[in-house]
């Protein structure tokens, strides 16, 4: 089938005939039988589960099949939320409620499109899923780090926050990261970016092993962190303190670390401070106070320092540094002083001091490097880049004509959750000055019938789980609205739309693959029980001891279910 984005008029006519036929058949079937609507959700993180919850609540007897590439569910809740934030993971109770429904099927250890990276993993083509469901929701999150694009980014000791967080949370992809954290005494540990993930990284690095031992942190991470020499941390942002992305709650969590000094940040231009909105004012006031610890000159406290209006220029390795530093390991980082500017100002002033003074309290101010910035260099052995994630398209998107914006890392959508593609249409009626065959064309958004998205692949990697929940509800409501209005869904014909779901996909895509081990919800519960038992044996009050490798997860299940 020709891709939607490049289809010619004849192809679109054929496509629209398929849609019309599908719609007619839906109406005909609805008048004679009660056929359940079957929805596929790709991804089992909070976006996927909240979409399923809302949709199933509003559509009795609808069937939902959820595909997950790992043998275990929950995505960001399991592998992204900091281990010492157990209260944030309480949403799992709601997800358990969803999974208990007879209308819900969990399909774990099954990769959609790309080949599974585990010999016991299953792979199903996206085209097969499209053939056997009425609608599909993409909720698979972000799997790629944004790059700084500066010299030295590939040096040892430079980590992305995503891989470090995945490592201490037991994500199989990073089970072998094995960061050597024993070099922290040789300089500052730098965290680039000042969102909540940056705050998590700082807190985990400074928290005592005794406290971490009571969380569900991965055992290998607890062992490495217990040997850490990290003492001084700098959290560095491109913009100013008013524009920082971290929340007051996360800042307070740093202040609560016993024996850790959070150094006060001295505000510039304090005359405008009182005009800030209350939430920003509270956060900024807390930032300017710092923590209150008694002087201890003989044994300085571990510390956290906030730096603003700095952008990384280069990471460097100097061989003349102490021999305890491994080869090709970062030893210094150079930053340039940025200038704040109004994002609506197309021709910013070159008077940088004036610009910074004027935009200091502008919450939407952006930052840029001047042609010859002032620079500052920090001695360091660890750099953590917490500058954001990106989703990537599934391998078959291009072939199937499903759009994806690679620059933003999102699936184009209408803001509600309907996937958009584009049709070429004339922007005005034929006229004497523009005959019909010479009409200018523009691209108009058009709903790709039957396809939806939710979560980070819909709006980018932003917001807390509560925001993801509301976003997922919006997508689920869009599907319900389209059902109520008897809108068209995936067309019959080449894609089938027979509504047979997982059983049909399995028969079609896994025929003859005896090695594929598909994990059901009951299988996951067996893994869950085994992890809880392992945590109890640790004797530290640990909630669970996670399995961090697929083979160990699957070993709990034995040979059953193949």
TrEMBL record:
Keywords: FAD, Flavoprotein, Mitochondrion, NADP, Oxidoreductase. Pfam families: Pyr_redox_2. Its cofactor is FAD. Its EC number is 1.18.1.6. It is found in: Mitochondrion. Its main location: mitochondrion. This is NADPH:adrenodoxin oxidoreductase, mitochondrial. It comes from Podospora pseudoanserina. The lineage of its organism: Eukaryota, Fungi, Dikarya, Ascomycota, Pezizomycotina.
